[in-house]
Amino acid sequence: MGFIKAKYNAPGGVHPAYHKDLAAEQPIVEMPLPASLVVSMSQHLGKPATPTVKKGDSVLRGQVIGESAGFISAAVHAPTSGTVKLVAPVATAAGPQATAITIEPDGEDTWVEGISPCPNWQALGKKEIVEKIAAAGITGMGGAGFPTHVKVSPPPETEIDTLILNGAECEPYLTADYRLMVEKAAEIWQGALIIAKALDAKTIYVAIEDNKPQAIAAMQEALPAEAGDAQVVELKTEYPQGAEKQQIFAVTGREVPAGGLPLNVGIVVENVGTTLAVWDAVVNGRPLTERVTTVTGGPVAKPGNVLARLGTTTADMVEFCGGTSGAVAKIISGGPMMGFAQADMSGPTTKTTSGLLLLGPESVHAYESMPCISCGRCVGVCPMNLMPNELSQFLEAEDYETAEEYNVMDCIECGCCAFECPAHRPLVQHMRRGKTQVMINRRNQ
Amino acid sequence: MLDVIIALVPALLVSVTFFGWNALRLTLACVITCLAAEALSRKAMGRNLGIDDLSAVITGMLLAFNLPPTLPTWMAVVGSVFAIVICKQLFGGIGYNPFNPALAGRVMLLISFPVFMTRWSEWTIPSPIGMDAVTSATPLGLVKTAVTSTGALPFTFDGATMLQLLVGNQNGCIGEVSAAALLLGGIYLLIRRCITWHIPVAYLATVAIFSGILWIHHPQQNLPPHFHLLSGGLMLGAIFMATDMVTSPVTKRGMLVFGGGCGILTVLIRKWGGYPEGVSFAILLMNAITPLINRATRPRVFGAPKGGKKQA
Amino acid sequence: MTAVIQTAITIGGAGLACGGLLALAAKFLAVEEDPRVEEVNEILPGANCGGCAYAGCAAYAEAIVLEGAAINLCAPGGAEILNKLAEATGQTAQQAEHKVAIVLCGGEVEHAPRKFDYNGVADCQAAHSTGGGDKACTYGCLGYASCARACPVGAIEIINGIAKVHPDLCISCQACVKTCPRKLIKMVPYARKIHVMCSSKDKGPAVKKACTVGCIGCTICTKLAEDEAIKMEGFLAVVDYDKDLDNDTVIEKCPPNCIVRI
Amino acid sequence: MTEYVLLIIGAVLVNNFVLTRFLGICPFLGVSKKLPTALGMCGAVIFVMTSASAVTWALQHLVLEKLGLGYLQTIAFILVIASFVQLVDIAMKKFAPPLHAALGIFLPLITTNCAVLGVSVLNVQLKYGFLKAVVFGFAASLGFSLALIIYTGLREKIDRANPPKAFEGVAIALVTAGLLSLAFMGFAGLVK
Prior knowledge:
The complex is a heterotetramer.
Chain A: E1 3-5, H1 21-24, E2 28-30, E3 37-40, E4 50-51, E5 58-59, E6 64-67, E7 76-77, E8 82-91, E9 97-105, H2 126-136, H3 148-151, E10 162-166, H4 176-183, H5 185-199, E11 203-209, H6 213-221, E12 231-235, H7 244-252, E13 267-271, H8 272-283, E14 290-296, E15 304-309, H9 314-320, E16 330-333, E17 340-342, E18 355-359, H10 377-381, H11 388-396, H12 400-405, H13 416-420, H14 427-444
Parallel strand pairs in A: 1-12, 2-15, 10-11, 10-13, 11-12, 14-18
Antiparallel strand pairs in A: 3-9, 4-6, 5-8, 6-7, 8-9, 14-15, 16-17, 16-18
Helix pairs in contact in A: 2-5, 4-6, 5-8, 11-14
Chain B: H1 2-19, H2 21-44, H3 55-65, H4 73-86, H5 101-112, H6 114-117, E1 123-125, E2 133-135, H7 139-149, H8 159-167, H9 179-191, H10 198-217, H11 225-230, H12 234-241, H13 252-272, H14 279-296
Antiparallel strand pairs in B: 1-2
Helix pairs in contact in B: 1-2, 1-3, 1-9, 2-3, 2-4, 3-4, 3-5, 4-5, 5-14, 9-12, 10-12, 10-13, 13-14
Chain D: H1 2-14, H2 25-30, H3 35-64, H4 73-95, H5 97-103, H6 114-125, H7 130-158, H8 170-184
């Protein structure tokens, strides 16, 4: 009942060593308040929020400290009560600078007033649900960080019939979503029903890879009656099953048009973490101030899944997990395939930090990239059916028009080609460089 | 790259057993010259040495396998220098050359030194009537001269001759004589995933079908398909030369088209061309067409309209 | 004698026939085109360098004739092309000042440490978008030679870690200005020789951590330079190139000696 | 009929005008940057070569030989070819301006293209009848187009190569053309 195997499988895909065993069995542990929190204004896709507090102000937990600055943007709330120490630019995980508010917690963790829980959310209309989500500053927590209130209120003429909960978590090492599904299955289903109501979606699917049997069992068991013919869909374990377009195809067989959005085929995909945050926002009325992040990797003494306030620095998180045992050669915010390497441990976690990965010297290699010998392995594994070998040679010769002709804009930067390339060519960086330049050229035209 | 060298060892052993010191002499000359040429040209171009990727060794061995046993050493050296310097390093080293260096080297030698490149040692054909005919031409050479002059086949292709071709007791270039040794190497490469089956299978199938049609249409003037499969440089070309990743298409469909094209051209040249053996020319011509094949067989982008333009 | 006549008649006849055919074709398939555009296009150097911000000389010619674009935008052309353009279009010729490009960053390898070792594509835009660039200073020149590759005349060279423009080679086509992801390259008058080699907007202490020759905003130079030739923009000293600045005390007195004469 | 087929195979594969007779090399090198431009060039060359070989044959046999002015052959041929090229130039400017801009200087260059003049002179030397001359002209232009299309595919690959400084640009293009003609020598003897 409520369980099917995925009938389709997207093209390409690779099987990296998953190393999930490091943190998979560790239950979610709440982290006490650290010494200081660095809350970045750019925790989402779109324009960074504009700060509404200045140095010296005292704030309460859940108080808006950054207003949404436009349609595609999201509000930022104080993760705890305390005083604002500094408002200054800080590097985000991806690299560019964004203003960040440093708060020194006062330890009381008092909530701002005006938190209005609403247990029987069924009485709420679609508009109220979207407003509550927007007020809570919920964004996609899988990694992209697209503001959820925008995703949940598609343009009127589009007709959404299916909601897919993305529980694939195909990125190696990361187990945050897995633990959420095992421990909070019922609440996630409630969140799903809320989103489905906002979208008028008829069927709900939960897509989980078959290397997470307990998660499948937990979600199947917690399936509520009012979810109707909702199904838990078991996907073949393959990276990148978690990519939106590939997951939609695997679950429903529909192909999102290249350059288009999932809503063009009547589907919205929402991460299980985001769904839980929606439940928390609508039912408990609490804005998004904390999230579960997997802190894992060889050098981490006690890898685990940590429920930490937004803005906790990497150093504090690693300290909470027993500090580092052995040399650290690389610090990655996110997973090894799509995460961003960090220069040091000072970076704060944000709404989109699903993992903090520390790698020892033995698993970090600096390669000298060789010319491409057209072996075609990257063409075989590209989930978007592109030709990474030709694209990387065009981009190496700085020929951006032909790269655009060969669909560089459809690249989802999943990293399969670079993972597979025997000549260790920086393929994903070529694609990213190409996409930036094509967008610059389009703007200059 | 090491796997390719291991796959070539069986053919090397067979060639040493049949042609003795000549085979060793040529192979060593080619390999050493290729390595030296690559090292010197990389230094001259101020690039990293890069000979540790063993691609020069493979080019040397493959070029040697395409040479007749009695070829003077200096010609082998000239061929190797041409293959490495002109056909590969001039384009910027591994990965940039449009043509297979070993093949281009062999074709250059064939056209520059036609006499030396077509002088073979003795071998006997065990004819069914008991009288072994001694000749100094390759099976294909014999067929070409006989068919063009007398219009009849020079020998009947029966079990005994087939076994000869399989084992390698025949005339020809040092590496191409034994089909069995080459097939052994090919299977090793398939297991080690250095090559995919698409090009060799497509190539051999097209040759078999095309020569089969000719054979059925005109049995007196054409030899059966399995003769064409086992003779000349086909096995060496299909398994080792055509599957060179740098100069062959990237997509699976492209590889099938490439193999088919090579097959048609090989039989075309063997049947009507001026040269007895068409494998080298066929593969070189298909190398030239590979960029167009790559362009034509691009996979449909995920999400692009079916059957429509490739991009959205 | 008859052979000469015969030749003349034959070839002359064939020529006349072809000429007639072409005349007919030219009439029926005529494509109207403004002759002045062709004339202006002839005057322009034809380097298609884009310095005039048009897609090439032909596009600039059309812009001049049809849209009345300014005629002094052709930097490589210099004075004599400007005068010819003035005659052709009947406009007055005011000489545009000869400007050259300069990279406002002095943070060479030994002055500006790197915060992580970057093992990716050797391109400034690629390095800049990987973790915000591998240089400790988030404003400084990364030295991956994107501007050098973009320069049509090879006037830019990477000298121990940062890009340097040779003023005499620069044809002021501004290709490098567009390429630099950190917008460090400015067009400055050729005559001006003294420059503040820094573009960092950070405060003094932050700059000191990132680079030993960065401008720490101590404002000494603004006081020494006569009639405000150097002004402070936030914590960064910026030269006002309209004013002629030529005193060496500014160079000696700058604590991190960030001001140089090129 | 087979005689014409053999003639076409002979002109396209065996003695290809560009790769074996080495005629018409400058448009071959100049236009082979991008495939669309190359295809445009093939169209122009096919039209000009076929019609030029027809008209030059007529001019030679009906006019020059009748009047004993055989020695005027080259001038007369160039005159006719030039006017055909001018005709194509005007027509293309009217109907396909982007292609006309892309071809640029290489379109009028067909006038002095030795392949076009070559086919006209060969028609006369080999004493072909009218129909044979036209078929030979058409076959020669097909050979030119085949070589140009294959070569354009190669050029797009080697433009991305990084040869040593001295060999960048046309030098490496000529080396590739040499290797391509080496491959085409395989067709030698295909047609007696």
